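Chapter summary example.
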Amino acid sequence: MRRICLLISMLGLSAAAMADNSWASVTSSSGTVAYLGLGLGLTYFRDGDFKMDHTLRVADSCLSAFAITEVMKAVIHSPGPDGQSRNSFPSTHTGVSFAMASMMSHYHPKEAPLWYAGAAAIGYSRITLQAHRPIDVLAGAAIGYGVSWFELRSKKGFLISPFVAPTDHGLILSLHGTW
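The structure predicted for these 179 residues follows.
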């Protein structure tokens, strides 16, 4: 039943975008927000005893992909295909979307085609809107996938998980180190 709801939600977004004939704009903006929100929400509400851990790990992977792509953009200053943007490489939208797809596919393998299709649509929309070149999108996808691969193999995550841990009563924030 949950998979059917997920499919209907994704198809609903797609149908609305196609009817307006601006699928790329919708997919690239509000569609990306809906995709990421859906992933975090579904992880929290359906992963039972693991909901806090899974939700934190998914958020950690997405935020790590965001941070890596943004730092790379600040260092590389690659012009976009529109000739105006100076921060095209790599695609942050695609990086974060593929981080989400990779994490969700790990936790819910039967849904992998849906999550990767959503991430691919977001990447393709960035090319269609001339916000990125194909190499920008491929690099973003590789970063998102790679960050998730490391996230799933580490005992704790990169950004959130080392400082925030789920407990029986919620979350606990822990800052360690010498100041």
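To summarize the output: Residues 2-173 form one domain.
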